[in-house]
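Appendix B, Record 12. Input sequence as logged:
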Amino acid sequence: MRSDPAATGFLAAASTPDGAITLAVFAVAIVLFVTGWLAPEVTGLLAAALLVAFKVLKPDEAVQGFGAPALITLMGLFALAAGLFRSGGVDRLRALIGSDAIRSPRRMIALLVAVVGPVSGFIPNTPIVATLLPVLENWCQRRGISPSRVMLPMSFAVVLGGTLTLLGTSTNLLASDVSRQLGFGSIDLFDFTAIGIPIWLLGGLYLVAVSDRLLPDRGLVGDDLLADLTSGGYFTDVLIPEGSELVGQSIHRSRLQRRFDVDVLELHRGDQSFTAPLADLPLQAGDRLLLRCQRHDLLRLQQERTVSLAPMDEQPATDPTQRLVEVLLPSGSSIAGSSVRELRFRQRYNATLLAVRRGRQVLRDLLGKVVLQAGDVLLLQAPIDALRGLQDSSDLVLLDELEKDLPTTNRKGIALAVAALVILLPMFKIINLMAAVLLGVVVMVATGCLRPGELQRAIRWDVILLLGSLSCFSVAMQSTGLAKGLALDLLHSLQGWPAYGVLVVVFLLAQLFTETLSNGATVVLLTPIATELAQGLGLPPLAFIYAILFAASQSFLTPIGYQCNLMVMGPGRYRFLDMTRYGAPLTLGLTLLAPWLICRHFGL
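Logged structural output:
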């Protein structure tokens, strides 16, 4: 069943069966995107499935995005970035950011804009933020500077730099693919760089100029999660006395953790020491336990003679292989939305969860019931070997540097050479960008810069599933006539407006969609409408595609619009409105600047 795409006006297109179904699916998807009841990638898959189930789209139309060159290129870019980071290819960048020569937040922000911004034009921005977070936190710690003074500028600098080239963000690649599907051709590597450079420079000047006045000071890094934890809880050694109800039971089967908010961190039995996981180890009289507990729970356990305080002179030496570290739950983590108990967190990661920081709130009680959310910062105690494993995980980002524990690598030069060739070969039109990226991945694996298992873990499958499934929106908008109808209505409203004014309206609309939905959804929903509008006004469709690309790739008002912003919310201890206050003037400035630059670029 097909609707007539030539139907005039949005209401006419929406009144057809296919148009009504498509709008209903869009409405459901928008509700799910905004509320977060389903993960964004699951929402995208649901939309594609519904459009096929109601015969609005054929199966091959709904999933054609999964075979798009842009999506394959993005998968390769994630792998290339992983190979570059893990081979030591960005060691100099990390050393520069963590340098003691940088002594003030303003100088650090200027460095981030000048160095990290351009780098993010060629490497997906999420891995950059994940890599630099621990370096920046370490610098703040040494300098006694609040992370809230530099974390948000780092995210904004990365976002600004992401529109310097096609490779900077997944949104850029998606916009290129939608442009190709609509018949306007793909976007080349440096096609919009002339627009991106002034935006990066002027945006960077803003970040440096207003940071002292618009960024909050949430206190020194010394007021960290560990300090927050110990201020309201205890680390204490206890003994299991003769006659205790714990004798002969495992921690898992005892009421120690079911009735009381207690975590057993270590167990010492004579000359033996045991660390997590301890859940199934039978307890014996005389065992010594290191507990994390609240004062009232410790008193109750003593009163019931379940445990007794250990004499101070018998305290065992701390296990040198155990470390206390902070980790971040990034956007797209597969464990977000699950409780600690459901995940069997301790067994899964061989680590004990001691506390969770969520914005300004520190959660210490009943941690097993805590449902983890993207942006949470977790305080863990774990052996160094387990922490090394976390460095390869895409579900958790380690915020403490362990480089001294890891072996050095001699493949840095190879990784840098591969990355340079991936950029240079397409730039000189020697081979296609997708082919260059895929060949680069093969060389990275063949030379040992990246192991096959690391390659699979490096790919952000949540991003791939979301972008691949969202292409169904663009196809449905075209096939049902909704894009043409809405464009005709806008055309009547904007008839006679100058090109600059129309582009400002399109840019502002795309920004609003990005801040409330996601950048990917913005591109696939608005690009068909904008190109129809451009053709109706006799203006270059590519100019309108660029307007949507820049608006969707640059989000500075809420953490929802861009995952980099969400990643720094926890470590920077930001509140929701902190970002709005710092980003609103920049957003307003870009709304006026970007359309003007696009007009100049196209001679409008």
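The longest strand covers residues 262-269.
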